[in-house]
Amino acid sequence: MAADTVRSKYQAAGQDHLFTFFDKLSDADRNALIQQLESIDKEITDPKYVADAIEPLPVDACESVVDNAATESKFRRVGLEAIARGEVGVLLMAGGQGTRLGSSAPKGCYDIGLPSHKSLFHYQAERIS
Q1: How far apart are the first and last CA of the chain?
Q2: C-beta separation of 91 from 84 below 8 A
Q3: C-alpha distances in angstroms, 113 versus 99, 102, 109, 129?
Q4: C-alpha dist (Å) from residue 112 to 37, 56, 107
Q5: CB 6: neighbour CB atoms within 10 A?
Q6: Buried b vs exposed e over 88-109: b needs ≥16 C-beta within 10 Å?
Q7: Which of the 8 DSSP states describes residue 56?
Q8: Which of 67, 22, 69, 12 is nearest to 44 (CA)?
Q9: From CA 38, how far away is CA 53, in angstroms rounded?
Q10: What percent of the chain has pLDDT over 70?
């Protein structure tokens, strides 16, 4: 496929930023880029699969409990009821390795020297269960 055809396809899908520096590339690099773009699944460049513009959440889609004891109490009650019904799952996300601690695992897995040798993740899981 010719470079112009590939470029047109990506421009139609709103992906023309991929060609920002295309004219500054060497011929070999241009050919390599075109080959890479041709090998990508066509659905990625099909406009019907390209997401619409991202918009902010509606105001009523989130709520804070900071300085709002009534809302906090309501959320706690609803949450505890859901836990009692077995309707709650937990996803604990943690980033960063403990390399400065001498560990290649996430910091939450690090043994901080407690008598139990339980990790912080272990303690968190026990508190949740």
Answers
A1: 57
A2: no
A3: 17, 13, 12, 23
A4: 48, 40, 9
A5: 20
A6: eeeeeeeeeeeeeeeeeebbbe
A7: P
A8: 12
A9: 25
A10: 86
Tokens for 27? 């011929």
What's the pLDDT tens digit per position in 16-57?
888 999 999 999 999 999 999 888 866 666 666 656 666 788
Whole-structure pTM value:
0.37
Going by the DSSP 8-state scheme, the letter that residue 14 receives in this structure is T
Tokens, residue 8 = 């047109």
Return the structure tokens found at 95. Answer: 């980033």
Q: Which two tokens stand for residue 106?
A: 């996430």
Q: What is the largest CA-CA distance in the chain?
A: 67
CA atoms within 13 A on the CB side of 55: 5
Q: Token digits for 88?
A: 């709650």
